[in-house]
Design goal:
Helix content is 31%, strand content 14%. It has seven helices and eight strands, in the order βαβαααββαβββαβα. Strands 1, 2, 3, 4, 5, 6, 7 and 8 form an eight-stranded mixed sheet that branches. It starts with 11 loop residues before the first strand and ends in a 5-residue tail after the last helix.
Length: 261
């Protein structure tokens, strides 16, 4: 199927999966999309995809987004918590994001944005798309056991990827064409690849979310899934430029055959 960004009135949608610091590949892919003239009007993003999606919907360039992640000390000791369920206190990131989203409102964005989160009390997914922006964005990225759940209107919310890591559903009624970027490819591994408890946890999480996500692939007009990302961990803060480049080059290659010149 061909994607023609020059077609009049075509509404493009973009779905961004979770993936931790692999989310830098989303930024690289967005850069490639814009070079092909593909500019989505609607975005749905989970976890790191929610953060990247919010920045993109607010009008930040790929260079500005990458710079934010490179210079923000997410794992600073000041962000650690000893009283909440997680290593990092999600509430402490509000001030960081308020500098970039001063209006703190979905309606202030230039693109329509949908952010899935997980209501961990009632065990269901909730999609935010209006009202307060920053808290749902942080909640969607609150990886269980790493970032503490975040309270919104008396309910605790956590990583949106737990129940919906590839959220195409909010866009299906609004978009003619939908592109998905999926950052958790499942590859064959050996026992030597999971010798640490962190690797076991990461592998289990990816397996748990992959089945539902992969079943959605046929619903997209195109899915970009950079296989080269597999060696890079969810919290690899040392390879951001490399991950960005992988996303850019993969999207550039995958979209070339779909876009009419």
């Amino acid at each position: 199927m061909t994607l023609n960004p020059k077609t009049n009135n075509t509404q493009f949608g973009l779905v961004l999966s979770g993936g931790g610091t692999r989310g830098m590949a989303h930024i690289g892919a967005i850069k490639a999309m814009e070079e092909y003239g593909i500019r989505p009007s609607h975005i749905a993003g989970t976890s790191s995809g929610a953060v990247v999606g919010a920045f993109y919907a607010a009008g930040y360039s790929s260079e500005e987004m990458l710079d934010f992640f490179k210079k923000t000390p997410f794992f600073s000791f000041s962000n650690y918590t000893f009283w909440k369920p997680g290593f990092l206190d999600s509430d402490k990131f509000y001030k960081v994001f308020k500098e970039y989203f001063p209006e703190d409102n979905f309606e202030a964005l230039s693109k329509k944005l949908f952010i899935p989160t997980t209501d961990i009390i009632h065990g269901k997914s909730r999609v935010f798309s209006s009202g307060e922006l920053i808290k749902p964005m942080i909640a969607s990225a609150a990886v269980p056991g790493v970032l503490s759940p975040l309270e919104i209107d008396g309910v605790l919310y956590s990583d949106g990827g737990v129940l919906n890591n590839f959220p195409i559903e909010p866009l299906q009624a609004h978009c003619d064409k939908i592109i998905g970027i999926y950052l958790s490819p499942i590859q064959k591994i050996s026992a030597s690849d999971i010798r640490s408890s962190y690797r076991v946890m990461e592998r289990a999480y990816h397996l748990a979310t992959a089945r539902d996500s992969i079943q959605k692939f046929p619903l997209f007009d195109k899915v970009i899934c950079p296989e080269e990302l597999y060696p890079y961990g969810t919290f690899d803060m040392y390879s951001l430029d490399t991950i960005f480049q992988i996303g850019y080059e993969t999207a550039k290659r995958e979209l070339k055959e779909l876009v009419l010149s």
